[in-house]
Write a sequence for this structure.
């Protein structure tokens, strides 16, 4: 004998399975999920049908997460080459820009996950690039690591004021900078 706790409404079943009610309803309508129909015309899904859905979901292979995209912006070719090599080894998708204008174009076009940004470049500097990213609602979630060879409390304060997420000097070794990039993603994923 079926008891009341053995079946669920479409919204309840959707919540248990982690889908929205429209998805659950379309599965019921298509016959992918069997449901009982009450005398009042309401659909009820048996616990055994929910169990089948949950087992199918567990049997599916996990989606491979896409590679994170990092845009490295610096006017020194050696810095671009070094970071490209190091980041690719860690399976990041790497793009580069050698000036602020090119960086602005690539940020809008690619919407990278993170930008490693040199502060002092000819033309448009890193401060302006950071301000552009962080004041644009479509871009402001992009992480920005400001990097400079001209370390000073004023430069650090100014770039953090423009919205940079992190500040690092070029005197830091590449391992420290890579660790900062990795931890930036971890911190961002948790928030």
């Amino acid at each position: 004998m079926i008891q009341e706790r053995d079946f669920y409404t479409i919204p309840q079943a959707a919540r248990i399975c982690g889908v929205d009610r429209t998805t659950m309803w379309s599965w019921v309508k298509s016959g992918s999920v069997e449901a009982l129909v009450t005398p009042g015309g309401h659909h009820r899904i048996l616990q055994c049908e929910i169990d089948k859905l949950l087992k199918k979901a567990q049997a599916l292979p996990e989606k491979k997460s896409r590679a994170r995209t990092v845009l490295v912006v610096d006017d020194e070719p050696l810095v671009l080459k070094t970071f490209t090599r190091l980041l690719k080894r860690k399976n990041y998708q790497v793009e580069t820009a050698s000036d602020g204008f090119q960086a602005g174009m690539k940020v809008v076009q690619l919407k990278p996950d993170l930008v490693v940004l040199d502060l002092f470049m000819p033309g448009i500097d890193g401060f302006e690039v950071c301000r552009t990213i962080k004041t644009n609602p479509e871009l402001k979630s992009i992480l920005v690591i400001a990097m400079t060879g001209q370390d000073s409390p004023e430069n650090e304060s100014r770039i953090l004021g423009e919205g940079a997420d992190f500040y690092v000097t070029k005197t830091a070794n590449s391992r420290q900078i890579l660790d900062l990039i990795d931890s930036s993603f971890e911190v961002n994923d948790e928030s």
